[in-house]
Design a protein that fits this description.
The complex is a heterotrimer. Chain B is mainly α. Chain B contains 17 helices and 4 strands. The N terminus and C terminus of chain B are likely disordered. Chain C has 2 domains: about 180 residues, no CATH class; about 60 residues, no CATH class. Classes of the chains: A alpha/beta, B mainly alpha, C mainly alpha. Chain C: One of its GO terms (biological process) is amino acid transport.
Chain lengths: ~450, ~375, ~325
Amino acid sequence: MLVYSYKQNNIEMGGKEMRMQNLFYLLIVGLLTSFMVACSAVDNAANADQPEETEENAVTDNIEGSSEDEGDTIKVGILHSLSGTMAISETSVQQAELLAIKEINENGGVLGKQLEPVIEDGASDWPTFAEKAKKLLQQDNVATIFGGWTSASRKAMLPVVEENNGLLFYPVQYEGMEASPNIFYTGAAPNQQIVPAVNWLLENRGDSFFLLGSDYVFPRTANAAIKAQLNAEGAEIVGEEYTPLGHTDYNTVIAKIKSENPDVIFNTLNGDSNVAFFKQLKDAGVSSENIIVLSVSVAEEEIKGIGADVIEGHLTSWNYYQTTDTPANEEFVANYKAEYGEDAVTADPIEAGYFGVYLWAKAVEKAGTTEVDKVKEAAKGITFEAPNGTVIIDGDNQHVYKTVRIGEVQSDGMISELWHSDEAIKPDPYLKEYEWAKDLSESLAE
Amino acid sequence: MQNTIYQKLLSNKVIFSLIFLILLVAPMLLSDFRLNLLGKFLAFAILAIGLDLLWGGYTGGVLSLGHGIYFGLGAYCMAMYLKLEATGGAIPDFMAWSGMSELPLIWIPFQYPILAILLGVIIPAVVAFFLGYLTFRNRISGVYFTILSQALVIVVVTLFIGSQNLTGGTSGLTNFETLFGFHINASSTQTAFYWITVFILGAVFFFSRMLVKGRFGKVLIGIRDGENRMRFLGYNPSAYKTFIYTLSAAIAGLAGMLFVLQVGIISPTMIGIIPSIEMVLWVALGGGRGTLIGPIIGAVFVNTAKTGFSESYPEYWTYFLGILFVLVVVFLPNGLTGLFEKWNERRKNKNVSNSIRVEKSVS
Amino acid sequence: MISDLSIKKENMGAVNFLLHSGKKGLIGLNEIILTLFNGISLGSILLLIALGLAITFGLMNVINMAHGELIMAGAYITYVIQHIFMDYVPPTQYYDLYFIVSIPVALVVAAGIGVLLEITLIRHLYKRPLDSLLATWGGVGLILQQTARSIFGAPNVGVISPSFLSGGLEVGSLIFPYSRLFILGLAIVCLISIYYYFYRTASGRRVRAVMQNRQMAECLGVSTRKVDMMTFAIGSGFTGVAGCALTLLGAIGPTIGTSYIIDAFMVVVVGGVGALFGAVAGAFGIGIFNTIFEYVTDATIGKVLIFLLIIAFLQWRPSGLVMFRSRSLD
């Protein structure tokens, strides 16, 4: 019967609608042509900056890092997801990086030149990250890229930056087991976040653990390390659950948790799932007094989405909180709020994105050039008074020394620090320093 | 059927030669990066041809929103070989930190390049055959098939993400080095991949065209217009549908392999629900469903638009792309190639009443 | 009360689950009840998000892929209403009413978006159902997501659940969260009102007439144009309500729609397109099976199993649970 109605509709469609259609054809043709023209114009503009690129010299061209010494600006790439599911987290990091660039420019730029950010959208899609990174390095000849959030996006960009001998500053805590010569890791390595968090929990909160994470590389790898550590300490793992990314119903998982009744839930959930998990955990009558949850992917920004009333009293482990008491942080928070509104909050990845830009700028100033190899050389041992304290680039693995901080979520959505490490901890992405991690790091031996 | 000169232009050699001419000179005009992008779009175009065979008026609108998985299966086959090649026989890093010590059984065939390439076509085809056989035999059609294909996507993607020790999980497979000893990211290798893609695109196109122009194609059109009548005439429509479905899955697998070679990464984000629907959008926007040339234009056009918009307006490109999609779907029911056809028709039908014209465009 | 529940600290494999439920009497019973409740609760959530789709897709044959974005709209409306209350209502006993207020507002606003969508887009695509899929997914969905991002910012926003829905009903050692019970109730209320509208009012009768035989209805003087618009608006409105309810359980962000849309389609298809009560059976069937699978295995395998079950089910009943048999062939 539907078929009949189609025909009916069509016969009724008179000349008027046809004419309207024709109008729109014109419109679309116009749109198409203008787009094609625009596209080629963009391309030309991009190509104008560089010498004629032929097949042979393209690669060598990039290896030289050709943006130096030409023009009065230095192009830097910013590559985060501005659309798709990861935009909820990544846009704020992008904002922090733009703030740092703006501040640097106001203070005279780098090597006397202004920084010119080239923004691209990774669209929460890893092949897109690879494509855009390639575009930034090959078409725009950026001096460095600041970008990424998920481990998958970093892994997608890794071969591209290595191939083109570019630079990438990656601002998020991650699972370790990696040290690319072309990537600077400004987030925490596992020994600067997870390992101390487990130690602290064992000392202060009990020794039966429930591991809960999203089903992807960071939680699985992190939990492998945690399990090794807990086994070595003689603690008990009563459960381990992974939920697909974007999972929204945690009733069943919570039922399992309740029946196991652990002391601690070690939470490596990512993104939206945290909101669902904490809301439903509270509804199920579990509060921080019964079972404490320590999260490593929940910062001030995420707390806003979860609701402070829901997550109050639970713990986090990071290197930085908005409340961290350093002079640099006071200034950073004030500037960030001035730029993005009184309601904006700062958080660990935001801060790591921010000081990453400064670290790169310092290294370039020291090297006197934006040439990648020289910048990398100059970056070794560079220090910077970041909002979280003094950070130092480790020359061995291009991670940074950072102070570890365990915090408790307050009713106003801020995190107050319960404990911090005595000094900035040396990054150890492969966990080589730990006896219990021997199997893990050995299996990865080159 | 209409023998106007424009129709001839469109359906005959001129426009094909024009397109292939453009593809031939592209390497001289485009930078490495752009050529690489074009190569990727052409890999998508190959997949779009397969989808068009299935959907485009030949099998009564079997719309699959699950071709991402066939694309992905092909891509993973190629990527597994490349990964093993890059590690030089050692097990890939993600397996090591997932606690595995030796290469799992299902990876072993992928040490051999020829076998990997063959499997990249065979595995999608086999999966599609089983699903198609059951589904079409049980006469699941229309929107039920479409939703079923989405369910399959969810199953495959969840499995791929869930078995990180075998597939690399969300990160997928990346960081490749060589193929047959050639450095995969070298400019010359990439140009070669481009040529291979163009060649395979041409081959797939002409093969598909031959298929649908002949007797086989006539049966398909018969099935489209009256499945039960064909059944009463002694044909077995589900066998034909299964064949086309399997063929289009194999083509998708082929496209997936070419994608991996040129992009250097495959991950579940590339095979999930969103890309699967996007693939259909290429065919729809290219239009002229069943023309086989429309999907090529559509795949290249949509992806060019996507890349162009997102490079020029990284913050707002989704608006532009969304508006473009809506406009084309609403006002160009036959897609971009429909523009040409409309133009022909109008010239031809100047004196024919509106209603007949409209009725024709329905079918 | 939590310690009451703790049985034994060991992994809960499939075998253990069965053993527990078999041997340990009461404890097993508790688990069964809890799993059943969780299944019904998940079913009610699925029903709520699929009801609107059962109307727009089931009755009207419009494949509206922007359905998820209507859920998102409902969720953001709750957020906005809460902010209005924050600003203008003192934080006293009336403050919690924001949630009650936002349900009808979400209904109306989402219906309004639905009308807008129908007039500008869907209307042109009734004769091309698959095209409506493409336009709403690629076009409308993208645009609505980006709009939300532009208005509310990319990060998730938070809604504080009303205090009368926090906590849960304690029965013995079991806790049934009020928010879950509320959603169950809301789903039933929505279902009844939709049923009442379609089967007990003159206007609903007209809708059914148009959907069953458009020409005949038109001949009898029904304005099919108006009926189409209204039906789509009703479907969209109830989707908005679902979004409002989901703020109790999940995130509120620009892309939340994408996590619900496929589930919603599965419910409608399993139930049988065009059958309202098929959707009910579909929702609770999927909900209960999904929970059991997830409890016995884990979330990932549970998800795989439930979708495999759907595929197998469709092989068995190619047109869903509730089929309309006719003798027509082509």
